[in-house]
Each structure stands twice: as C-alpha cells, then as structure tokens.
Amino acid sequence: MNFNTACIHAGVEPEPVTGAIMTPIFQTSTYVQPELGVHKGYEYTRTNNPTRAVLQNALAALEGARFGLCFATGMAATDALVSSLKAGDHMLCCDDVYGGTYRLLKNVRAQHGIQSCFVDFSDLALVEKSIRPETRWIWIESPTNPTLKVIDIRAVVEIGHKRGIRVAVDNTFMTPYFQRPFELGADLVMHSCTKYLNGHSDVVMGCLITNHEDLYEQLKFIQNAAGGVPSPFDCFLVLRGLKTLAVRMQRHQENAFDVANFLIARKEVRRVSYPGLRSHPQYELAKRQASGFGGMVSFELAGGLEAARAFAGALKVFALAESLGGVESLCDHPAIMTHASVPRELREKLGITDGLIRLSVGIESADDLTADLAQALDSIR
C-alpha cells in the first residue's frame, strides 16, 4: 500500500456496530464483564481502550512494524523504555538530543542507578569505544535536536547488534513519511506524537513501536503498571491528524527548502543547518538514508543573544514557542527554551549557542514566511 493511502486506511477499520468510518471516541473508564474472568478484550481504560488500540495499530502500520504503544507524552514513552532497565544498566546516546531526554537520564534516572553517556555519533569509532559491558540500549536522534546533525542509523545498528545491544531511534523529526528506521535495522522507534504525527498543536502524546514481541510485552506491562496513557479523545485527534500526514510533510519540506535558501543569503546569519542543503556536512548520508529532509531548519545569528532577542521579538507569522511539527510555523531559542536543562558548557560544545535559532517551518505560504524572516532580520540592525 502506498504511504499516502496507508495514512488514511492502515490499521483502521469501520466501527463494527454502526459502520462509522471514523473511529469513535470510547470515552469510558471501565467495561462491563458478562461473568467472572470473561470480558470482550477490554477491562479498564488504563490497560486498554478501543480508540487507543486503533491508533496503536495505525502507528505500527505506518512504521512498517507489528506493535505500537501510546503514552501520555513523548517523555512518558521514553521513560517507559528507560524503566525497562535496572540499576547498573547503561544507555549510550547521541550527544545532541532533545533537552528533555538529557534531563530525564541525567537528572532523574541517574538517581535510580541507570547510567547514561552522550557521545558524538558521527564518529563511529567513538560509538564503538563508548559501549560498555553493561550497555543495554543505544539511543539515536536523527536528525538531531536542535543542530540537525544526521546520524548513520544503519552503521550504528550494526555496531550495537554486533555486541547484542538493541537500538532505538527517535523518528519524531522525520516521521515514517521520510525515514524508515526499521528498514535500517532499528529495534524500536519512538515518536513524540505531539509533533508531526498529530500536526495541529492540540495534543501531547508519545508512542513506542517495535517488531520484537518480547520487548512489546515488557513495555506493555510498564504502560499498564505505570499508567502514563493518553486519553481516548487525544487518541482520536492523533488518528485524525495521521490522515493528512503525507500531504503535510511534503508541504513542510517544500517550505523548509525555501526558508533555508533564503537564510543562506542573509548577512545576519552565520550558518544554516538543513539536511537538504548540499552544504550540510551529512548531506549525502541524509539523501541515502531517507527519502526527504523534513521541515526543521536551524541557523545561528552572528549577533548572539542580543540579536536573537531582537529577531524573536520582531516575528509576526512565526510564533515564539516551544514544540514543533504543527501546521503553523514556530521559532524556538534552544539555549533558553527547549535545551535550558543542558549545562551551558555542553550546549556551547554542541553548537547550541546563544545565537542559535530553531525553526519548525509550517505549511503557510512560503512567501509569507520568508517575508516575516526578512523583516525580523532587518530589525536586528
């Protein structure tokens, strides 16, 4: 099935009682059981819910996998995987990751004895050298957040599997429309469904997807036991969002190309990072590994924090806000906003400077977006 068709139909069937083409919102906490020990597949909505079950099936189908699990937030999904570890276990992560992932591992789970380290995954020899006897998972973001470094997923998977270590990929930025981690050997895919999968900035949710039945059963147990599940209504909204995923992602990318090429020509901009630009250090890898380049653009202003404040304050179409992946365009200042929990010295080492701006390019008119950026950059002077 073509991906565009799968977005609308995969994992979804008409509701059997009424024939409703849209999956209903089963807004119930519990389910009547005809007798002791007998039920119709549902007992309690924390454990399972028909609306959530359809969404989980749809997400797994879009990633080309067997099993999907939804959680109340992207961080709840990430933490479910981390919760599968025990004290003394180790996670090896790429260095440039979402600030919340860093905060969870370094400031929360480290207190429970779960170790983690963050290294530059563009250096494959360093990846191999950083693996320990107690390493249980390798965590990849590609492209990374917020500098948009591209990681060779297949190569990292080969390194991990050679040692019997499973590999997880945060595919939030690319979505299965552009990038297929399971085809590159990944064992688990994570999404912040808050972002492109929902696409309308009105839901917070996360998911984990896998082909490994043992891993699915372990994570499903944690999902039920810890209880960090999304509401039926939120599941309905993400199901709705998935139906336009393909057309939205294409428009996000078209606009991101226009924005990136516009920024390159501006003297106020020191550097632009977009995997679709030939100037990107991993352009050839990005072209080989994915079918597109996504809708995220990062750039550094020459004037540092003062310039960033002036620029952000002058925007009219782009909204200064955290998050990404909605139909509207957003501007984020990672050092103060999404990555403030990362120590300053580490931020600067990673290239998350005070002048770095991350744009989530929406689906508005590209002319309006570049005009807005132009007047905001003019204001810096």
Characterize the structure shown.
It is a single chain. With 381 residues, this protein is an alpha/beta fold. It folds into 2 domains: 3-242, Aspartate Aminotransferase, domain 2, CATH 3.40.640; 246-380, Alpha-Beta Complex (Aspartate Aminotransferase, domain 1), CATH 3.90.1150.10. Helices cover 38% and strands 15% of the residues. The strands form 2 sheets. The protein has a 7-stranded mixed β-sheet with strand order 1-7-6-5-4-2-3, sandwiched between helices. A 5-stranded mixed β-sheet has the order 8-9-12-11-10. Helix 6 links the parallel strand 4 (135-141) and strand 5 (166-170). Helix 2 (50-62) runs parallel beside helix 9, helix 3 runs parallel beside helix 4 and helix 12 (304-314) crosses helix 14 (366-380). The radius of gyration is 21 Å and the shape is globular.
